[in-house]
Amino acid sequence: MKTLGVTGGIGSGKTTVCGFLEEQGARVFYADIEAKRLMQEDEAVQSAIVDEFGPTTYREDGSLDREYLAERVFGHPDRLDRLNAIVHPRVFEAFSAAEERAADEGIDLLVHEAALLFEAGGDAHVDVTAAVVAPDADRVARVAERDDVTPDQVRDRMGHQLPQEELRRRADHVIVNDGSLNELRQKSVDLYWTVLDA
Ligand code: ATP
């Protein structure tokens, strides 16, 4: 079995690519969803977060107050590092477990999808990496529509991520999402076979 890290900036199309890889038989581990799940459900993660950021990080009903946490870490790289130091190792642990299960079940390709694959060090946990890049104008228009936010809000989020040129430089494979969804499907199928045949 091979493991592939898929990343890309906001609205680049990485989740769409992962869906096409799933159609080919790949299994996808969504790191960002796993991180959210851990923060919401895992007692050890919760108690480490409370120790670091205070009890009001969780509401009385036990749900995570994302806005409060975002306010605490926004503009404080040291705090963000501490939050990541709590969550990331547990995400990688979950990925290892997913890897074992997938191998046992005869899956050919396990994909690790993460918006911040390189920033979080997720590239060290996979065999190869792929970055999905797309024209900024398309990304802004698609996310504004999908999330019902303004183009400026999307550009603001883009400004907090690695530039696409950097992703291109770091990734082993690059998918340029500058055409139709059908073209993106074909590029994803090509990537699937390129990784498996390597
Ligand atoms: P995020 O980081 O915000 O989750 P993402 O990189 O996972 O974004 P997607 O959710 O895959 O991006 O794509 C963003 C939106 O753009 C989706 O609604 C998707 O259907 C659409 N989209 C992606 N690629 C294309 C394309 N080539 N043609 C038309 N629509 C597309």
Report on this model:
With 198 residues, this protein is α/β, with parallel strands linked by helices. It has a domain at 2-26 and 108-197: Rossmann fold (3-Layer(aba) Sandwich). Helices cover 57% and strands 13% of the residues. The chain has helices at residues 14-23, 31-41, 43-53, 66-73, 77-104, 136-147, 151-158, 164-170, 181-197, and strands at residues 2-8, 27-30, 109-113, 128-133, 173-176. The longest helix has 28 residues, at 77-104. The mean pLDDT is 96. The protein binds adenosine-5'-triphosphate.
Entry summary:
The chain is α/β, with parallel strands linked by helices and 198 residues long. It has nine helices and five strands. The chain has a domain at 2-26 and 108-197: Rossmann fold.
Record field, number of beta strands: 5
- Count of alpha and pi helical runs: 9
Please estimate the helix content: 55-70%
Averaged pLDDT: 96
Strand order of the largest sheet: 2-3-1-4-5
Looking at the chains present, what oligomeric state does this protein adopt? single chain
Return the string of H and E elements. Answer: EHEHHHHEEHHHEH
Low-confidence stretches: none
Distance between the termini: 12 Å
Q: What is the annotated CATH architecture of the domain at 2-26 and 108-197?
A: 3-Layer(aba) Sandwich
CA gyration radius, whole angstroms: 18 Å
**Would you identify the CATH H-level superfamily of the domain at 2-26 and 108-197?**
P-loop containing nucleotide triphosphate hydrolases
Question: Which fold does the CATH topology of the domain at 2-26 and 108-197 refer to?
Answer: Rossmann fold
CATH classification class of the domain at 2-26 and 108-197: Alpha Beta
Percent of residues in beta strands: 5-15%
- Ligand set: adenosine-5'-triphosphate
Strand pairing plus helix content: what structural class?
Answer: alpha/beta
Gross morphology is globular
Q: Main beta sheet, described?
A: 5 strands, parallel
